[in-house]
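Notes from hallway chat w/ T.B., transcribed later so I don't forget. T.B. wanted the structure written out for a chain they're using in a teaching module, and asked if we could keep both sequence and structure tokens in one place. Agreed to drop them here.
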Amino acid sequence: MILGVLKEPEGENRVAIVPKSLRKLGKSGFEVVVESGAGISANHSDAEYSDAGATVTSRSDVLAAPLIISIHLPDVSDLHSGQVVACVADPFRHPEKVQACLDAEVTLLSMDMIPRRLSRAQSMDVNSSQDNLAGYKAVLLGAAAVAKGIPMMTTSAGTVRPAKAVIMGSGVAGLQAIATAKRLGAVVYASDVRKSAAEQIESVGGRFIEVDGMDDFEDESGYAKPLTPEFIQKVNDTVCGVAKDADIIVTTARIFGRPAPITVPSSAVAAFKSGAVIVDMNADVGGNCEDTVAGEVITTENGVTIIGTKNLPGTLANTASMLYSNNLTTFITSITKEGELVLSEEDDVLVGAPEGNDFHVPGMGGVLICSDGKMHPKQTRLGGVL
């Protein structure tokens, strides 16, 4: 079977498959064709792909492959009936693109729908691999922008107190942010609406910010449940109170299919100290900070810097591509027999864990969206059904 690897659109430096993955794909019976220049921004030349056994060719030739591997969903008008595309489709945020695939009779494997609670799916989980890097890079950006040293230093000229970091949220990205800030020498405080996260926060060196009345707001898939507006306000007020004298604040809250929730309102920014740096990890979906400008770094009137860098994993293109490639290669080879894809309704990675008889919830639903429209993840809780 021919597997095509596309060059990503302008502004995306990652590539979906790196040369080191080609050997494993070849053993599973795949012939790989790569669009010329696909890996350049991730430090992989066309020659590396050729030496590893791929055919480097034009975009039109790659788009003719029966299986397309990418990060972003290609323009559906470039695809054809019967094709299979594996990518990060974000189906609940872009239902119109999913519908376009169904109309074009294209089968979509949306990798951001990997059911992470399945042990065998963890090595395929692109959300975790990319979020982990994003949390790491967010702290580095904050540390580079703040006008003070991060660790405690004892010098002949005096003692430098360690910087204070507040990490809002402790999912995969948040835990890596906590660990990175701690390794840099900061005193780290962290929050989460999942009470079970306290132990995880403390295990990587953070201090858990407890909110009065907190319960364990976690669903079966391991994600945070939607909260009442009143409790969200209480959490935000508590955490922003701790962050008043912080040097670095990193926000991580992201919800499937919705704009990012506001966790740092403008009133909180106005109360933060001059010189503080906010790194908003969700600038691309509206931002957690009310004052974030997507793709820009701004400074408020009271001297707070807000970093709205989009696509943080893409700023670490080489490492992010390697991890994404490993995820995709493991996934694709796991559903391949004798060089052909096997898309089975019995595969819980593909179809997920159903709730009721006919729909899957984010984080539990599988990755498969069939071209016949009969089997694909649906959701009602976040508004609308695909």
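Follow-up for T.B.: The first helix runs from residue 22 to 27. Might be a good example for the class.
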